[in-house]
């Protein structure tokens, strides 16, 4: 079998974790015979991970390059890896932990911290979680994109806002093109979220209640998230054009996405936005 850098690094990593453990630490009796190496023997790890001795040896030697998610999860449990080490193991194998049913970093995000982040910008900005719930937003986002604070909690997510919020539909010039693009992104990433019940619940609602979504879905188009532009027409008829940027894995949480809308240079949007925010501050 061909050896590559990643498989060699994986082998070195699990070998180092094996050598730090003693049989008594994992609840097994030491195998008979003189122990020539510190920590567990390979056969002891293979027993704990329910793997053949040969297969586990290949992993340590970097000869096996495609371990399954289940194998990685079994090894991480056998070696008593903590959350950081488990993530590192899956990263070395280029495997998504969710595909093995592993849940990493289950702590809830600090919403107050996220709110402080978006409040630093005067550009429209918001943060969504893996269910597309908008969990933090600034005043500019309320004025330009949608009044998130007035929406019921169950409706405060971008999938529903795109297809069911009439105010958003009226504000977003070329709503149809953007909705088609968003549907293509959902199509490209649906397998990643198939084990997320909340995301799938919203997906099913779109399929059942939105004819436009079904039409776009049936086109079977695939799009990955990219930098895009959006033109908004406000109730007073003034238009503002933004370049939409996004950042993933906010605060080391892969489910969080931070979106910020940067005025298109030369469009007059930056100046119009500042005036709008100044007028809003005077009213409040």
Question: What attributes does this structure have?
Answer:
46% helix; Beta-Lactamase; 434 Repressor (Amino-terminal Domain); 13 helices; 284 residues; 2 domains; 6 strands
Q: Which sequence of strands runs across the widest sheet? A: 2-1-6-5-4-3
Number of helices: 13
Distance between the termini: 68 Å
- Counting helices, strands and paired strands, the structural category is alpha+beta
Order of helices and strands: HHHHHHEEHHHEHHHEEEH
- The appropriate CATH architecture of the largest domain is 2-Layer Sandwich
The counted number of beta strands is 6
- Specify the biggest β-sheet: 6 strands, antiparallel
Tally of separate domains: 2
Mean pLDDT across all amino acids: 88
CATH topology of the largest domain: Beta-Lactamase
Please describe the topology of this protein.
Layout: H1 5-19, H2 42-48, H3 53-61, H4 69-78, H5 83-92, H6 111-119, E1 125-128, E2 134-137, H7 139-144, H8 158-164, H9 166-171, E3 172-173, H10 175-189, H11 197-209, H12 211-218, E4 228-233, E5 239-250, E6 253-263, H13 269-283
Antiparallel strand pairs: 1-2, 1-6, 3-4, 4-5, 5-6
Concise summary:
By secondary structure, this protein is α+β, with helices and mostly antiparallel strands. The protein has helices at residues 5-19, 42-48, 53-61, 69-78, 83-92, 111-119, 139-144, 158-164, 166-171, 175-189, 197-209, 211-218, 269-283; strands at residues 125-128, 134-137, 172-173, 228-233, 239-250, 253-263. A hairpin with a 2-residue loop joins β5 (239-250) and β6 (253-263).
């Amino acid at each position: 079998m061909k050896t590559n850098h990643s498989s060699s690094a994986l082998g070195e990593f699990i070998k180092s974790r094996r050598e730090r453990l003693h049989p008594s630490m994992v609840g097994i009796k030491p195998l008979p015979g003189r122990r020539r190496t510190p920590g567990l023997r390979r056969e002891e790890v293979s027993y704990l991970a329910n793997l053949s001795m040969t297969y586990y040896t290949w992993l340590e030697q970097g000869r096996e390059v495609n371990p399954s998610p289940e194998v990685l999860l079994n090894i991480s449990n056998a070696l008593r890896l903590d959350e950081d080490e488990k993530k590192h193991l899956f990263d070395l194998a280029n495997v998504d932990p969710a595909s093995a049913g592993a849940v990493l970093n289950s702590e809830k995000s600090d919403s107050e911290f996220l709110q402080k982040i978006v409040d630093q910008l005067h550009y429209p900005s918001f943060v969504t979680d893996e269910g597309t719930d908008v969990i933090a937003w600034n005043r500019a986002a309320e004025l330009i994109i949608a009044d998130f604070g007035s929406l019921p909690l169950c409706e405060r997510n971008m999938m529903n806002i795109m297809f069911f919020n009439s105010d958003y539909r009226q504000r977003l010039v070329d709503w149809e093109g953007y909705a088609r693009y968003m549907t293509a992104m959902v199509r490209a990433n649906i397998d990643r979220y198939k084990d997320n019940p909340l995301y799938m619940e919203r997906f099913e609602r779109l399929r059942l209640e939105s004819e436009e979504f079904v039409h776009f879905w049936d086109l079977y188009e695939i799009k990955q998230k990219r930098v895009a532009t959006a033109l908004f027409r406000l109730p007073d008829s003034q238009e503002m054009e933004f370049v939409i940027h996004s950042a993933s894995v906010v605060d080391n949480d892969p489910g969080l996405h931070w979106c910020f809308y940067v005025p298109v240079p030369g469009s007059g949007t930056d100046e119009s936005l500042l005036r709008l925010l100044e007028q809003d501050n005077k009213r409040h």
